[in-house]
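Hi all, posting the design record for the shared folder.

TITLE: backbone redesign
STEP: 1 of 1
STRUCTURE INPUT:
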């Protein structure tokens, strides 16, 4: 697993006189966190959307209909395109992404064939994808724009979309020199994927089922 490490922070800690005590406390805290994470794996449900973030188990509330429609439309478009062009694997909602410290269930994710060809039947833990889409809700927006944004960036997820189903807007971030760059923030026009070769769609298709169905017919 590739992760971009903040070596400056490590150097700063090692320069502190109390570094050994600090490291000992960190080791104890992370030992307790690892136990919680193992418990999370043992008790995670196939029914509820749950994530493990910085030592906490987050169980998500039910989504509003706009959220569900936008995510469903996106999945229909992207999955159809990926399958037709044999580009990899598209997961929705209950695909558990296991990163260095945290575990996420993105609303939608895409893995190129270089990764997905290695997946096995019965697999329930997955590495960092090439594209992640999170559809905002009141309960998740802070994490989608905060810890998840940082974690996806550090794990070199090539492309990250934040979709606002209420405002019918898409934000598209692309990894450039190890940092996310905002490529697009719009309610109109086309969004062109970097991770999914050749995929380009009008933003309006994400929020309108009739437009989604018409677009899919032409894939």
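Okay, here is what came back for every position:
SEQUENCE:
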């Amino acid at each position: 697993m590739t992760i971009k490490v903040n070596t400056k922070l490590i150097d700063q800690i090692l320069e502190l006189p109390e570094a050994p005590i600090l490291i000992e406390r960190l080791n104890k805290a992370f030992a307790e966190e690892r136990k919680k994470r193992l418990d999370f794996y043992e008790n995670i449900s196939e029914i509820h959307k749950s994530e493990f973030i910085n030592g906490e188990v987050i169980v998500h509330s039910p989504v509003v209909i706009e959220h569900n429609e936008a995510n469903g439309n996106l999945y229909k478009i992207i999955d159809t395109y990926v399958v037709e062009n044999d580009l990899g694997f598209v997961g929705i909602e209950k695909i558990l992404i296991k990163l260095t410290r945290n575990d996420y269930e993105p609303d939608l994710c895409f893995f190129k064939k270089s990764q997905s060809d290695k997946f096995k039947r019965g697999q329930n833990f997955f590495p960092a994808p090439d594209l992640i889409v999170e559809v905002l809700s009141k309960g998740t927006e802070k994490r989608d724009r905060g810890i998840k944004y940082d974690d996806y960036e550090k794990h070199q997820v090539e492309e990250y979309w934040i979709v606002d189903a209420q405002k019918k807007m898409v934000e598209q971030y692309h990894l450039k020199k190890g940092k996310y760059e905002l490529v697009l923030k719009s309610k109109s026009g086309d969004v062109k994927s970097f991770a999914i070769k050749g995929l380009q769609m009008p933003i309006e298709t994400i929020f309108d089922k009739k437009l989604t169905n018409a677009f899919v017919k032409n894939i």
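COMMENT: The chain has a mean pLDDT of 94.
Let me know if anyone wants the other runs.
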